[in-house]
TrEMBL record:
GO terms for cellular component: plasma membrane. Keywords: Kinase, Membrane, Phosphoprotein, Transferase, Transmembrane, Transmembrane helix. The lineage of its organism: Bacteria, Pseudomonadati, Bacteroidota, Flavobacteriia, Flavobacteriales. Pfam families: HATPase_c, HisKA. One of its GO terms (molecular function) is phosphorelay sensor kinase activity. Gene3D superfamilies: 1.10.287.130, Histidine kinase-like ATPase, C-terminal domain (3.30.565.10). It catalyses: ATP + protein L-histidine = ADP + protein N-phospho-L-histidine. PANTHER family: SENSOR HISTIDINE KINASE TRCS (PTHR45436:SF5), SENSOR HISTIDINE KINASE YKOH (PTHR45436). Residues 228-428 form the Histidine kinase domain. The keyword Cell membrane does not apply. This is histidine kinase.
């Protein structure tokens, strides 16, 4: 995951970099064009000024011929030649590349050229002038380096300012986020958000306050319902069961009536167990348990095994256990006891007669393995009231409760089937 600042800054930097790269050829074209236009004006000025100076000297034709010859020899970048008067020529601008013959290491360089007809002593002459334009590339390179330098300064400055400003601008948001992380619905206390002059944060605080008030109200209603249901439903169920127990002791009952009452008693017992389990699930979903207790996990396992020892003997199940001493976990004691009891009862229920149950406990996980013949359907494994075997004595909520307890305590439950063995692993 990336922070919001990097997500907004990175596209901006990429955009500026792309614009910078696109600007380089534009810089080159504009500067080169301006440079050539300036050189054209420069060359034209040289031609006109040279002609003016020759005319100003008022030389004879013979002296003019010698002077032009001397001029051509000492000015290698210019040339003056006589042309026919009847051949008019327009100014011609062009660029050539040639090697510098006078340099120690000749290099190919560009020259901006002008061919212009000038009149000296009222006679037409073709004046050719060439000016090196390599300086334009150096100018472009200097501008590009200068632009890149200031681009780097802008980017570094923006990153620095963004980080400094984010500390101030996003501080109310971080405070709000921290308060939300520490919010516990069990405490049913409202969050007091700090005042800020940022419109978006104020709107966020108002929306969160309304949401929290609604959540607390719903939580109170659900909690009252589960508590009332626990009390109101269990009481009549207990009375009915008590009456059935009295009825079963009646000596006037026929065998047929006895069987009917016994079936009713079993159904009532199962209904009472389902009611308790559903209420437990409701309390877990409503976060009505404290999970900050420090639990000695291996001790809870040993107590559960002692309590269920009779069930092991009924199916002649051998129990092998490998428990590390003093494995402490954070959670809720009562929920952890229910978790372990349900795992062991589930293992007993799905273990064949004379089977084996193996339990292992290490620092990071608890694993319970029991012998079996067929893999359980993982699609319905942790669904409520799903039937994974022909055993109808269970409530159909045992594995669902296991799953919800692990989820509530931030643990992980995994089921696998290997070598004719059911394996349930709880990762802390």
């Amino acid at each position: 995951m990336k922070p919001l600042l990097s997500k907004t800054t990175k596209p901006f930097i990429i955009y500026v970099l792309v614009i910078l790269l696109m600007s380089i050829p534009v810089y080159y074209f504009i500067v080169d064009t301006i440079w050539q236009n300036e050189l054209d004006e420069h060359n034209k000025t040289i031609a006109e000024k040279t002609a003016y100076e020759f005319n100003h000297l008022k030389l004879s034709n013979e002296m003019l011929h010698e002077s032009i010859k001397l001029w051509n020899s000492i000015q290698p970048e210019t040339n003056i030649e006589n042309i026919k008067a009847e051949v008019p020529q327009n100014d011609e601008y062009f660029t050539v590349e040639k090697a510098e013959t006078f340099a120690a290491e000749p290099e190919i360089e560009r020259y901006r050229c002008l061919k212009k007809v000038v009149y000296i002593n009222n006679k037409p002459f073709l004046f050719t002038v060439q000016t090196n334009i390599e300086e334009s590339r150096e100018t472009i390179a200097a501008i590009a380096l200068n632009t890149a330098f200031f681009f780097a300064i802008i980017v570094v400055g923006l990153l620095f300012l963004n980080r400094r400003l984010s500390v101030v601008v996003w501080n109310p948001f971080r405070n709000t986020l921290e308060k939300l992380k520490n919010f516990n619905l069990n405490h049913q206390s409202k969050i007091e958000f700090e005042k800020t002059d940022t419109t978006e944060f104020e709107e966020l605080h108002q929306s969160l306050s309304k949401l929290i008030e609604h959540s607390i109200s719903v939580y109170k209603t659900q909690k009252e319902f589960t508590e009332n249901a626990s009390h109101e439903l269990q009481t009549p169920l207990a009375i009915i069961k008590h009456k059935l127990d009295i009825l079963l002791q009646n000596e006037d009952l026929t065998s047929k009536q006895y069987e009917i009452v016994e079936d009713i008693n079993k159904a009532l017992t199962r209904s009472s167990r389902i009611n308790k389990n559903l209420l437990l699930l409701a309390k877990i979903e409503n976060s009505q348990f404290d999970i900050s207790e420090n639990i000695l996990f291996n001790k809870v396992i040993e107590q559960s095994c002692e309590m269920l020892e009779e069930h092991f003997h009924q199916k002649n199940i051998k129990v092998h256990s490998s428990l590390e001493m003093e494995v402490f976990v954070n959670g809720n004691m009562s929920l952890t006891e229910v978790l372990i009891n349900n795992l062991i009862v589930n293992a007993i229920r799905h273990t064949t007669q004379n089977g084996i149950i193996d339990m292992k406990l290490v620092d990071s996980s608890f694993q319970i393995t029991n012998s079996g013949t067929e893999k359980l359907n993982e699609d319905f494994l942790f669904k409520r009231f799903s039937r994974l075997s022909a055993d109808s004595t269970g409530s159909g909520l045992g594995l669902a409760i296991i799953y919800e307890i692990c989820k509530f305590q931030n643990w992980e439950i995994i089921y696998t089937f290997e070598n004719d063995q059911h394996i349930f692993t709880v990762n802390f």
